[in-house]
Design brief:
- With 87 residues, the chain is mainly α.
- Helices cover 71% and strands 0% of the residues.
- The chain has helices at 2-5, 9-32, 36-64, 80-84.
C-alpha cells in the first residue's frame, strides 16, 4: 500500500489517460447498444471511471502545485455527455 502513495506524477497521469480512454470506450458502447438495461449498466461503469479519474487527478494536482495543473477531461466529453445518452 505504501508504494501506491509514492507514484510519480507521470505514472499517475498515464493511469488517468488509460482510465479516460476506457470511459470513452464505454460511452461509445452505450451509444451503440439498443438494450436499455445494458446501456444503463455501461453508463454506470463509465461514471465509475469518472470518479476514479477525479480522485487521481486531485492527487496529481496536490503533487504538482497550482502552476502545473492539467485539464480534467482531455477526451472532449463532459459529464453532461453521460446524461445525453439516456434519451
Amino acid at each position: 500500500m505504501q508504494k501506491k502513495n509514492n507514484l510519480s506524477v507521470g505514472v499517475m497521469a498515464q493511469r488517468c489517460h488509460k482510465w479516460r480512454q476506457k470511459r470513452k470506450s464505454l460511452l461509445e458502447q452505450a451509444r451503440t447498444t439498443g438494450d436499455e438495461i445494458e446501456r444503463e449498466k455501461i453508463l454506470q461503469a463509465a461514471e465509475h471511471y469518472v470518479r476514479i479519474v477525479n480522485d487521481e487527478q486531485s492527487k496529481i494536482d496536490q503533487k504538482r502545485g497550482p502552476r502545473e495543473e492539467i485539464p480534467m477531461d482531455d477526451d472532449g466529453m463532459d459529464d453532461e455527455d453521460l446524461g445525453q445518452l439516456d434519451t
